[in-house]
Specification:
This protein is an alpha+beta fold and about 190 residues long. It is about 30% helix and about 40% strand.
Amino acid sequence: AVRQAPATPDPEAVPKDGFGGRQALAAPPAQVWQAILDAQNLQASIPGCEALVQRSATDYEATVKVGLGPLSVRFKSEVTLRDLQPPRALTMVFVGQAGALGSGQGTARVRFEPTGDGGTVLHWWVQVQLSGRLAQFGNRLVEASSRKLSEEFFERFARVLGVPAGHLPPPSPWHRLQRLLARWFSLSRK
């Protein structure tokens, strides 16, 4: 089912760089919240995740193999869930080492928006930074790869959850203008 997500993100919660997206799910926020905290669900949702071990309620260790341009890179990673606001929002922090190639870190902010029909729209924003030899690939390649992996994570999560995923149309020009103005006003207050 196609659902329009009318709400614009909170300008204070939107990263100033990075990228984001939305994923509609035919399940209530409480069910989606419980599913995203489950280690098996996370492992099945993270593209290229070869292993994931839960160390505490919010900390995980993972081995993730991802494609970055011509390379296939294996990261030994720590995944931490922060800023937990059940069932409204959370932040996932990824820190990974790729041996001699360098390291990477990323942050994914996720907001759970209830819909009028009992579903949820996940709004997500991602920031990624690479260091070492990995950083030489350039921002466009890193962002394109990161965007693809992020979109795949949320699509896989919908399948793992066992509910139909709705495809949302892109935000209307009016919503994009509202977001731009909200960002501009939040910057001018600082």
